[in-house]
Amino acid sequence: LQLRPALVKAVQRDEITAVFQPIIDLSDGRIVEVETLARWTHSGEAIPPDYFVPLAGRAGVLSEFTDLMLGKACAALHRWSVLPGGEHTRISVNLPPALVVDPELPGRVARILRQEGIAPARLTLELTEDALVDDPATAKSVTGRLEELGVELSVDDFGKGYSSLLSLRQIALHAVKIDRAFVANLDQDREAERFLNALLVMGRELELAVTAEGVERPEQARILMALGCHRAQGNLFSPPLPAAELGALLASGG
Ligand code: G
Ligand code: G
Ligand code: MN
Ligand code: NA
């Protein structure tokens, strides 16, 4: 398998692309934030990020890849900002676990924000719970410096990982994104509703913004609203889109 050198080349040549999926405020239908997702097509085949992001880590190009994604995210946000409805939109970028313990990350994030002219408060970095478990001291220091920079931090796939509540306590967290496994059966199964509600109660108590992921059907959105979860992401609202199409969606009022 020659995917590894191909990926290294793709990163060096800036051939990884970004698509963008909106996060909606269910109470008014507006786009409050947009998540950046990486796409790589190799020999005509779409390679899933679940596969190529870890591969970028093994190939030694994880920082370069992540810097590219941050740059694309900020550049897109800059362009959307001049559109009606785009000026308050925020952007989120996924952070690979290994970079949560990279002491050089905060400096690079600061430089990219400056270069693209984006206020730090408009960027959310999504990290997973397991990123905090292996080396909590370094993770605490890196996330602390990101927090000082003014960037927001969100825990992705919430409820799915090791769920180390203790390590979550160590970092200045602004938001959680409830894993789509908790949303999937929401309209079929009362037990699913109770689990989701328990996560929402935790989010509320900890004063975190809570986003439900993977919303595909109107009935799921209705139940989320009834449970008091107003932020949602999923194909019901929009699949991940190229920057220009997401811009058009923003301009049309979300
Ligand atoms: O659309 P989806 O198949 O994009 O994403 C699958 C997984 O890959 C998700 O868990 C997502 O967080 C991760 N992912 C997608 N894009 C990126 C990225 O730019 N960086 C990192 N670290 N992970 C990503
Ligand atoms: O980083 P994270 O794991 O949150 O990445 C979001 C993932 O969820 C991406 O793979 C994205 O393509 C996927 N996704 C977005 N909307 C939906 C949806 O409505 N249903 C499902 N099954 N997946 C979705
Ligand atoms: Mn994510
Ligand atoms: Na997720």
CATH topology (fold) name:
TIM Barrel
Strand order in space, largest sheet: 1-2-4-5-6-7-8-9
Percent range for β-strand residues? 15-25%
Structural category: alpha/beta
State the assembly state of the protein chains: single chain
What's the overall average pLDDT, rounded?
Answer: 94
What compounds sit in this structure? guanosine-5'-monophosphate, manganese (II) ion, sodium ion
Total number of distinct structural domains: 1
CATH superfamily: EAL domain
Q: Share of helix among residues?
A: 40-55%
Largest pleated sheet:
8 strands, mixed, barrel
Low-pLDDT windows of residues:
none
Name of the CATH first level: Alpha Beta
Gyration radius, to the nearest Å? 18 Å
Second rung of CATH, namely the architecture? Alpha-Beta Barrel
Strand tally, please?
9
Shape: globular
Please write the string of helix (H) and strand (E) elements.
HEEEHHEHEHEHEHEHEH
Count of alpha and pi helical runs? 9
For the terminal residues, how far apart are their CA atoms?
42 Å
Protein name: EAL domain-containing protein
Organism: Nakamurella alba
Keywords: Membrane, Transmembrane, Transmembrane helix
Which helices and strands occur, and which strands form pairs?
Elements: H1 3-12, E1 17-25, E2 30-42, E3 45-47, H2 49-58, H3 62-80, E4 90-94, H4 105-116, E5 123-128, H5 136-149, E6 152-158, H6 165-169, E7 175-178, H7 190-205, E8 209-212, H8 218-226, E9 231-233, H9 243-251
Parallel strand pairs: 2-4, 4-5, 5-6, 6-7, 7-8, 8-9
Antiparallel strand pairs: 1-2, 1-9, 2-3
The protein binds guanosine-5'-monophosphate (2 copies), manganese (II) ion and sodium ion.
Domain EAL: 1-254
Keywords: Membrane, Transmembrane, Transmembrane helix
Organism: Nakamurella alba
